[in-house]
Amino acid sequence: MADLEDVLSAADASLEASLGRLKDLVRIPSISTDKSHAGDCEKAAEWLVESLSEMGFDASVRKTDGHPMVVAHHAGADAAAPHVLFYGHYDVQPVDPLELWSTDPFEPTFSETPDGRKIMTGRGTSDDKGQLLTFVEACRAWKETRGDLPLNVSILFEGEEESGSPSLIPFLEANSDELKADLALVCDTGMWDAETPAISVSLRGLTGEEITVHAASRDLHSGHYGGAAANPIHILTGILGEMHDETGRVTIPGFYDGVSETPDDIKAMWDGLGRSAESFLSEVGLSKPSGEEGRSVLELTWARPTAEINGVWGGYTAPGFKTVIPAEASAKISFRLVGEQDPHAIRAAFREFVSSRIPEDCSVEFKAHGTSGAIHLPYESDELASAGKALTEEWGKPAAFVGMGGSIPVVGFFQSMLGMQSLLVGFALEDDCIHSPNEKYDVKSFHKGIRSWIRIMDALAAPKA
Amino acid sequence: MADLEDVLSAADASLEASLGRLKDLVRIPSISTDKSHAGDCEKAAEWLVESLSEMGFDASVRKTDGHPMVVAHHAGADAAAPHVLFYGHYDVQPVDPLELWSTDPFEPTFSETPDGRKIMTGRGTSDDKGQLLTFVEACRAWKETRGDLPLNVSILFEGEEESGSPSLIPFLEANSDELKADLALVCDTGMWDAETPAISVSLRGLTGEEITVHAASRDLHSGHYGGAAANPIHILTGILGEMHDETGRVTIPGFYDGVSETPDDIKAMWDGLGRSAESFLSEVGLSKPSGEEGRSVLELTWARPTAEINGVWGGYTAPGFKTVIPAEASAKISFRLVGEQDPHAIRAAFREFVSSRIPEDCSVEFKAHGTSGAIHLPYESDELASAGKALTEEWGKPAAFVGMGGSIPVVGFFQSMLGMQSLLVGFALEDDCIHSPNEKYDVKSFHKGIRSWIRIMDALAAPKA
Question: Structural domain of residue A126, as residue ranges?
Answer without folding.
Answer: 2-203+377-461
